[in-house]
């Protein structure tokens, strides 16, 4: 019976056949241990000389790393294995012999591994990170479908910028100027006016010359937008969503978290509600922690976010930032027009901002005023203005950065490991 590693639990004490690659091996005299992978998981194949033909045993001992094979054998339970099962090999058929696979079990430098990212993805650690990434994506669809959101796909090529053009990739769109999208948010606002509750999931681009462990040039965002929604209600959706993602990863990625040696208890504690502090309170907290040079009106950097997060045992919302350091579309606080109804969700353990969100301006005259203050082109943004002209309603939304969330849940240090083929300031290959 042909099967995959992920389904061997359905075939205990049965003989199965699977296609696999050899990730590693060791042998001692009359027994060979093959570490096999097939894309769905990893399993150990045990080849006992007395139980197979001489040809099969010699093949097992001579197999090279990443050679592809068909393997047949009996599935047995193995309590010593993190996976819980192993394969008692009966036959091996060589498909392709790999020669001099460049990534060996020894230590390699990061640049070497990034140059060979197309092969590095095969490793057990990278496999675990990608499985967690996949679970976050799957759980996102489950959450928003359950909450009656509709998925809408905004364009990647756009003639306008969500937050200004200084960090956008410019391109020529026939005879017009165009940009690679830095956010689908403006279009999601239009979709929310048509469908009520919507979300998008897609790539975004930032031409930001940053080399930190939290930044990518191309990354993926989940961006919900909700009509008839106030700021506080949006925060509740955000914390419920993040809690749902964390518990989905805990429940469905136990083996992967074990491979990564992740402290699962820290993920289990990610349960709504999350603490909230205002920007003003965050400034006071930072001064207490020795950041004497931080002044009101300045944005927070990575050291500031980390220091704030260390004061809480859960993710923390920082709300009501100064208007002048936030995007033009954010709604001012009715009680203090110097700040806006917004929030950043800061993850613990130094992973920084995971979500940025706000209530959007819904007043036509105020939005026109913002256009003038930010020198926005009436031609490029006319359609966005019309959302306030025809049936405007209170609405709010947010964007969750997928790669930072994967890094946080996985416990990996750098976001370059959280996307299959990272685009960094100095990397466009492979």
Describe this structure in words.
The chain is an alpha+beta fold and 430 residues long. Helix content is 31%, strand content 27%. It has 13 helices and 18 strands. An 8-stranded mixed β-sheet has the order 6-10-11-18-17-16-13-12. Strands 1-2-3-5-4 form a 5-stranded mixed beta barrel. Strands 7-9-8 form a 3-stranded antiparallel β-sheet, with no helix packed on it. Strand 8 and strand 9 form a beta hairpin. Helix 4 packs across helix 6 and helix 4 crosses helix 13. The two termini are 37 Å apart. Its EC number is 6.1.1.22.
Can you summarize this structure?
With 430 residues, the chain is α+β, with helices and mostly antiparallel strands. It contains 13 helices and 18 strands.
Using the CA coordinates, give the radius of gyration.
Answer: 26 Å
Strands, count: 18
Q: How are the strands ordered across the major sheet?
A: 6-10-11-18-17-16-13-12
- From the coordinates shown, what is the CATH architecture of the largest domain? 2-Layer Sandwich
How much of the polypeptide forms β-strand, as a percent range?
Answer: 25-35%
Total number of domains: 2
What is the residue-averaged pLDDT?
Answer: 96
Looking at CATH, the homologous superfamily of the largest domain is Bira Bifunctional Protein, Domain 2
SSE topology sketch:
Layout: E1 15-28, E2 31-37, E3 42-48, H1 54-62, E4 68-77, E5 85-96, H2 110-115, H3 117-120, H4 124-146, E6 150-151, E7 157-158, E8 170-173, E9 176-180, H5 185-195, E10 197-205, E11 218-227, H6 231-252, H7 254-259, H8 264-268, E12 276-278, H9 279-288, H10 302-309, E13 316-319, E14 332-333, E15 336-340, E16 342-347, E17 352-359, H11 364-373, H12 378-386, E18 395-401, H13 402-410
Parallel strand pairs: 3-5, 6-10, 12-13
Antiparallel strand pairs: 1-2, 1-4, 2-3, 4-5, 7-9, 8-9, 10-11, 11-18, 13-16, 14-15, 16-17, 17-18
Helix pairs in contact: 4-6, 4-13
């Amino acid at each position: 019976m042909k099967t995959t590693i992920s389904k061997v639990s359905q075939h205990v004490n049965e003989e199965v056949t699977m296609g696999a690659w050899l990730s590693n091996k060791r042998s001692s005299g009359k027994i060979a241990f093959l570490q096999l992978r097939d894309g769905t998981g990893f399993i150990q194949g045990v080849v006992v000389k007395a139980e197979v033909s001489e040809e099969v045993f010699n093949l097992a001992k001579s197999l090279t790393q990443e050679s592809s094979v068909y393997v047949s054998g009996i599935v047995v339970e193995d309590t010593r294995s993190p996976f819980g099962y192993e394969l008692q090999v009966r036959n091996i058929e060589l498909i392709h012999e790999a020669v001099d696979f460049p990534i060996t079990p020894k230590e390699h430098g990061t640049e070497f591994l990034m140059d060979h990212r197309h092969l590095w993805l095969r490793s057990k650690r990278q496999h675990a990170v990608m499985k967690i990434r996949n679970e976050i994506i799957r759980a996102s669809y489950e959450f928003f479908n359950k909450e009656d959101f509709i998925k809408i796909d905004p364009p990647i090529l756009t003639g306008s910028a969500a937050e200004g053009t200084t960090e956008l990739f410019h391109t020529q769109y026939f005879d017009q100027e165009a940009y690679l999208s830095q956010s689908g948010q403006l279009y999601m606002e239009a979709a929310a006016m048509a469908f009520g509750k919507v979300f998008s999931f897609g790539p975004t681009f930032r031409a930001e010359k940053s080399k930190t462990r939290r930044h990518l040039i191309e990354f993926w965002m989940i961006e919900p937008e909700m009509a008839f929604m106030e700021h506080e209600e949006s925060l509740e959706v955000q914390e419920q969503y993040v809690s749902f993602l964390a518990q989905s990863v805990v429940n469905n990625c136990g083996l992967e978290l074990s491979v990564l040696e992740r402290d699962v208890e820290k993920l289990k504690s990610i349960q709504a509600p999350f603490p909230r502090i205002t920007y003003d309170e965050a400034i006071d907290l930072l001064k207490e922690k020795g950041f004497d040079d931080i002044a009101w009106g300045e944005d927070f950097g990575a050291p500031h976010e980390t220091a704030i997060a260390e004061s809480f045992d859960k993710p923390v919302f920082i709300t009501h930032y100064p208007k002048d350091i936030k995007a033009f579309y954010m709604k001012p606080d009715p009680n203090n027009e110097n700040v806006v109804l917004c929030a950043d969700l800061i993850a613990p353990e130094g992973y920084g901002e995971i979500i940025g969100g706000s209530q959007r301006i819904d007043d036509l005259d105020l939005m026109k005023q913002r256009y003038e203050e930010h020198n926005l082109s009436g031609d490029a943004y006319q359609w966005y203005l019309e959302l306030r002209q025809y049936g405007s309603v209170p609405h709010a939304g947010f964007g969750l950065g997928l790669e930072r969330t994967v890094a946080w849940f996985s416990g990996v240090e750098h976001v370059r490991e959280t996307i299959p083929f990272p685009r960094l300031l100095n990397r466009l290959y492979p």
